[in-house]
Design brief:
Helix content: 40-55%
Number of strands: 12
Distance between the termini: 42 Å
Strand order of the largest sheet: 9-10-11-8-12
Length: 501
């Protein structure tokens, strides 16, 4: 550790602590209460929080016999995980997270960025809003959405973002930047679909972008939602705007398509492949999806996930040599859908899960010390939780999965799917991978060899001319895309993005 970079705490979206630019593994915290303690200190950084307040925050009505001693243990673990003990300050009867540049909190930076944007004018203000809003990674303090101590801070951040989206949308609309106006207004209306200022700004932005049909459709959605949920009609201002839309009185500006919109090209040319993959929704089989980079395998598994609930995880190159990394992601995804999924398991299995994931409470006996027993218990844990969830397992970028998790996954699928001896009623699985990279990973190749003909293979190739014709209106451009690219979705999107730019 160099100690040069500040420690970074991320409260927006999934809670993350970065040390020297790398995420501190959950195991280093020694339990989920240590992470909750850091979040609680972070929202009042620079101020000492009394022990009794922290005790109530962490344990509620089930406080330990000696809260102060237990808090001290958690603080010591937090200091070790941060790697800089001086960042957690001890005061009279309480603790604080130090201020200053040695530690950053993304939620603080978000609010500071919005304040800076409000002090600027014109294009500089709009760019500052865009920069600040780009730092929003998701729901603040997502792990504490039902905690009373987090409610005020969460509401403050959510209100700030809502106001910023509306202000930025109106500023972009006034500046003639209709693409940004639609982007900001759509996000604001999605967050608050009954908030008039957000919806009307979106309607005006859609009309300015030259899409009056979408503007009228959005007004009708708003009118129905008000009637169904609140039993009221739109305001006089909203009705006047609707009348202007119907008569064409609202001016429209020439819509410019920003390059990044081409990342969301229609999902075409994969009907047969999607049908083959979707078989796992009806039968407990394993489907292996093979496709080169850019062929659209991730888009395919996402399309499956939109069709029905699945347990979707992805492997990453940085974790390919980290034992249990994919298994942890899989268990966390199951628990994200049902936080109580582990609570009904026998204590030995809970103990094994607690060994794998520090945030899972362990049974009284603790995890078995020998690796083989732990592995057997983890296999049983995943089988039971997946069977209860009744959802297929979908693993994207399997070529980057670590060997330990691959062995665990194979044992689980042998029990839950139609692959392997002893298979019974259960759930299916989709394993998506890039063949070239998979061939370089011995553990992945061995797994695919053992699956052999017992798994269904789906190969993603190039898009056919009919699919390409669905993406562009000009026949000449469609022919050029057929001949000048390898006809993969990524290559076609890149060409269209370059043309837009």
């Amino acid at each position: 550790m160099t100690g040069d970079e500040p420690i970074e705490l991320r409260l927006l979206g999934r809670f993350v602590v970065l040390r020297d630019g790398r995420e501190v593994p959950a195991a280093e915290f020694g339990g989920r209460k240590v992470r909750a303690l850091l979040r609680g200190l972070a929202i009042r950084r620079g101020s000492f929080i009394p022990n009794d307040v922290l005790t109530d925050m962490l344990w509620g009505a089930r406080a330990p016999a000696d809260p102060a001693a237990n808090l001290q243990v958690l603080v010591n673990r937090a200091r070790r995980a941060l790697g800089r003990p001086a960042l957690v300050l001890t005061g009279p009867g309480g603790y604080a997270l130090a201020g200053g540049d040695a530690l950053t909190v993304d939620a603080e930076q978000f609010l500071t960025g919005l304040q800076r944007a409000r002090r600027l004018d014109g294009r500089a203000a709009l760019d500052a809003y865009a920069h600040a809003l780009a730092g929003w990674r998701g729901e603040p303090l997502a792990e504490d959405s039902y905690a009373d101590w987090a409610a005020e801070y969460r509401d403050r951040l959510l209100r700030a973002r809502q106001a910023a989206l509306e202000e930025a949308a109106q500023m972009a609309l006034a500046a003639g930047d209709v693409a940004r106006a639609v982007e900001f207004a759509a996000a604001a209306a999605l967050e608050q679909p009954l908030r008039e200022v957000a919806v009307l700004t979106l309607i005006r932005a859609l009309a300015a972008a030259g899409d009056p049909a979408a503007a009228l459709g959005r007004y009708d959605d708003y009118r129905r939602a008000l009637a169904d949920q609140l039993g009221v009609d739109p305001s006089a201002e909203a009705q006047a705007l609707h009348a202007q839309l119907q008569t064409g009185a609202l001016p429209a500006r020439r819509r410019t398509m920003p390059a990044h919109e081409f990342a969301r090209l229609p999902f075409v040319g994969r009907a047969a492949e999607l049908a083959a993959v979707a078989a796992v929704l009806e039968a407990p089989e394993v489907v292996v999806v093979r496709g080169a980079s850019g062929a659209g395998k991730s888009r395919l598994v996402d399309a499956l996930a939109q069709r029905a609930p699945v347990v979707l995880v992805r492997a990453f190159p940085a974790e390919r040599d980290e034992p249990w990394s994919l298994a942890r992601s899989l268990v966390r995804e199951i628990l994200a859908g049902d936080a109580a999924a582990a609570a009904t398991l026998p204590e030995p299995i809970q103990a094994a899960l607690g060994w794998l994931l520090p945030e899972v409470e362990q049974g009284d006996g603790g995890a078995p010390p020998d690796p083989e027993s732990r592995r057997a218990l983890l296999v049983e844990a995943m089988i039971r939780m997946l069977r209860d969830a009744a959802m297929p397992v979908v693993v994207d970028d399997l070529q980057w999965a670590d060997a330990t998790s691959l062995a665990l996954l194979e044992a689980v699928l042998a029990r839950l799917s139609g692959v392997g001896a002893g298979a019974g009623a259960g759930v299916g699985a989709v394993l998506a991978l890039r063949p070239a990279e998979a061939a370089e990973r011995e553990a992945v190749t061995a797994l695919l060899t053992r699956l052999g003909t017992r798994a269904r293979m789906v190969q993603l190739g190039s898009l056919d001319p009919a699919a390409i014709a669905q993406l562009v209106d000009a026949a000449e451009l469609a022919r050029a895309l057929e001949t000048a690219t390898d006809r993969t979705p990524l290559a076609i999107a890149e060409v269209l993005r370059a043309l837009a730019a």
